[in-house]
Amino acid sequence: MHHMDVRVLEQALDWARSGQPIWLCTVVSTYGSSPRPPGSLLVALDDGRYVGSLSGGCVEDAFIESIRDGALFPHTVQCIDYGATQEESQRLELPCGGVLRVMIERREANAEWLTHLEVLHATLLGQKQLIRQVQLDGGRYRVSLDQATPAPVVREDDATIYVRIGPALRLILAGISPVAEYCAHFARTMGFEVIVCDPRADKRAGFDVPGVEVQSVLPALFIASGATHGATAIVALTHDPRLDDPSMIEAVKTEAFYIGAMGSVNTSRTRAARLARSGGLSDAQIARIHMPIGLNLGSKAPAEIALAVMADILRTHRGVEVNDVVSRARVPA
């Protein structure tokens, strides 16, 4: 899940607590090109106010226009295919002939629904994954622990929608540097929750990225405190071994899906030897660390390095092999 979805559920809770019925929309599947992946959320009121995104603009505009005009959907829960016809796809300006399947729920504000939203919100901020099950006939819903092997974020059968709800993507930046600052900007745009840790007051004073949490502690201490989960990426981008090495030593003890440290090939070899000798890391633990960090884009400037880092984090999160990235880049558009 993305950090944007945390904002959606926070707004849903706020409206539900005030007694207002809400519309909750979930992207079930996409065909063709789509700016937002399955599982993306949007919440709205009858008057058209909304938070979240389904397609980057076109589909949410069509949905909001429908509820404002009073074209209310007849069931508590239903799935709508946006862009299913060529005419509609052109009207909505969906890219590349895309089709977006959206589950639309209209829920009254009651104690059961409020509790359900609180559980979903806590899950996005927590450590465990849940499966949200919504019955299309009647609209009943419940959650259960997600104990399955990797599977699609959203699955649909004839009667039920299954949505995997897990911690929102988190990026921990171990120390402040020009590259780290650009990474923070990119990550926020991509929907990550971003936390920067640096005990140096002068570095914190010059860091100003909206929406980023800044912790005035050693990154290693913050990482060791239990602030990570399986949807966390941890990167060290300072070139300072006093910050980078302890961060990597603690990072490999976590479930973080991506761990990386900036440096050249020679610097990375030296760091690996140092982490084994002084940090006591095993070969398997060192192998978890992406170093040199990022995709090989020939990056030189801080913004270019940050782009390579965030691209590699996204590639890893999506389970795409490096060879697949290269082969796809060579396919004509």
Automatic annotation (TrEMBL):
Under the heading Pfam families, the entry gives: XdhC_C (PF13478), XdhC_CoxI (PF02625)
- Domain of life of the source: Bacteria
Q: Which residues form the XdhC- CoxI domain?
A: 15-69
Segments forming domain XdhC Rossmann: 171-313
Q: Which Gene3D superfamilies match?
A: NAD(P)-binding Rossmann-like Domain
- What InterPro entries does UniProt report for this protein, alphabetically? MoCofactor_Util/Proc (IPR052698), XdhC_CoxI (IPR003777), XdhC_Rossmann_dom (IPR027051)
Q: What is this protein called?
A: XdhC family protein
